[in-house]
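Each record in this resource describes a single protein on a pair of labelled lines. An example record follows, reproduced without changes.
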Amino acid sequence: MASYMRLRQICLVAPQLEPVISDIARIMGLAVCYRDGNVAKYGLENALLPVDTILLEVVAPFKDGTTAGRFIEKTGGRGGYMAIFCCDDPDACGRNANALGVRTANVIDHAPYHGVQLHPRDCRAAFIEFNHTDGSDDVLGPYPPAGPDWQKFIRTDVTRALTAVEMQSPDPQGLAEHWGKIIGIAPNPQAELELPNATFRFVKGGSEIMSALEFRVADVAQVLHTAKAKGLAVAGNEFLLGGVTFRVS
């Protein structure tokens, strides 16, 4: 399998970009680095915000019949859309997934970027994508989906890192093992997949979704105060935004 595997990007889906993007930026102290015109051919608009070296993207359909629109309808707007990993050989990862019965849904070849997207029904819970950009083995190197100078938009005074992704399933151990085989990382006894820069945690729940994102922040109380001021329902150290629970510590 791949010699390295890192979480590169999380993609959320919303009926409209606003106010989701501006709420994320304001509450989490993040800045939009790019809006990618290339996604218009899929009937989508998007915006990306760097969380240190992981990109957080929100996409929204602007016409009927999009995959993202069907995802919203199927899930009732609950759950993250894509988990995107960078590795040295996306095609090899795709072939491994195919051998497990996971179909390739889309191949994106925009040199120097090459991505292999897997079918969400086969992945279960969310899309998985593997990608590689020539010359980007440095985590602060080029990453075309985030624009030409995404590094300049990193803000760490409020949000320090995206540390974990929570996946929910009636069978969390089974989903952890399934994703582990696709990604090439065996789950630990706590049903977690530990990547170098983030952890995927699998928990019991009524449906299979990407249910929460966990962030390390400078001041938990301040983030929760800002979320309340934006009109979001805060419970404990978490709030719902963009279809997922934002959990801060």
